[in-house]
Amino acid sequence: MLPRVTDDGASTSSRVSPATLRKLELAAGDLAGACLTAMARCHPWFARLSADLRAGVQLVTQTGVANFVAWMGKQGVAGSLGAPRLTAEAFRIAPRDLARRLTLSQTVDLVRIATEVFEEQLPPLAADEAERRALVEGVLRFGREIAFAAATVYAGEAESRGAWDARVEALVVDAVVRGPRVVSGSTARSWSDGLVSRASALGWDPTEPLRVVVGSPAPEAHEALLSEVRREADRSGQSVLVGVQGNRLVVLLSEPPGLDTGGDIGTVVEAFGEGPVVVGPRAADLPGAHASARDAFAGLPAAPARPGAPRPVAADDLLPERALAGDQVAHRRLVTGVVEPVAAAGGELLATLEAFLESGSALEACARTLYVHPNTVRYRLRRVSELTGLRPTDPRDAFVLRIAVLAARLDAGGEPSNGS
């Protein structure tokens, strides 16, 4: 326990004679050197630091020793051992890179070693027992204040880093949403390089696959929800970037190989408010994520046309609604992904599909229209399912197939394939 200081500021152990102070001043250089030697001896990583970082630690240590001597001198004049006011200066003069390259744990270890060296080498300089107690008390209080000053520096650095990370995160999300564009002579290549550089600075692996999730942000406490999303993603080994753009919340969620992300996307949904949440298709890497974002944003206004859609809903599951809303990408994807494979297979498959849809999905009526046996219709519809992954007998799949056929007719000038 530290010696008690009386209410009037006087302490029986607080005074140090001018002669002892002079000894402290003369020993300051050796004391700083002893601290550095002990640091290198106790922590092998200290010796592996660059010369600039070691010089920074040396500067902080020497300033701290000088501050301690000055502080003890002031208490000798004032007659009380008040709170040291110079400790923060030891870190303020340090190179800015020092707090970024040394962790708080490493800094605390170095402060602990310096305090131990002080405790070992300063008390023998005292002229009597009272001065020895004063020096011991001074070392304890000064070490405590140095630790507080270090924590303050790292807290400030963390706040600055957090604000910087938030700005970079917003830039990355915005770049993904906008996609590569030629602006003032810049090229898609420079856009990709800038995106990868910024994302890498945030610890994101730009080569990992990902999805883009969009929707409306939660109106209340969404910051706490976003923090929880980040924690859940970190626990599952994923990376997440979040951006709020007006009334839209955009989340980039990585999908490391072999990871099932269904549950994790469900966790992400909790950060969204009311309304649809749309998940873009899987992008192979970060530079390709703008396509996933484009599809997700295209699905957002189209989602209300499908009231029974799951939440979240995949953008690819809204292709008919997106096509009806004027999305040309969805229009072409329906044609190339649904109609063209069926047409390429031949065998009257496309004509059978069109006739089946036109007959109200009535198999017997379709067979009569085509003058074939119902089993032939069944066989052809199974082939359509194999080619497209859509079952014509399912109401939702039938709707997708119908819109795809209509899109193909529009591209062909309105002529159905069966000529009817």
From TrEMBL:
Matching Pfam families: GGDEF_2, HTH_30
PucR C-terminal helix-turn-helix domain mapped to chain residues: 349-407
Domain of life the protein comes from: Bacteria
Organism, as annotated: Pseudonocardia zijingensis
UniProt-recorded name of the protein: Helix-turn-helix domain-containing protein
Matching Gene3D superfamilies: PucR C-terminal helix-turn-helix domain (1.10.10.2840)
Biological classification of the source: Bacteria, Bacillati, Actinomycetota, Actinomycetes, Pseudonocardiales
Protein family according to the UniProt entry: Belongs to the CdaR family.
Domain CdaR GGDEF-like residue range list: 193-298
Signal sequence interval, chain numbering: none
Record InterPro entries: CdaR-like_regulators, CdaR_GGDEF, PucR_C-HTH_dom, PucR_C-HTH_sf
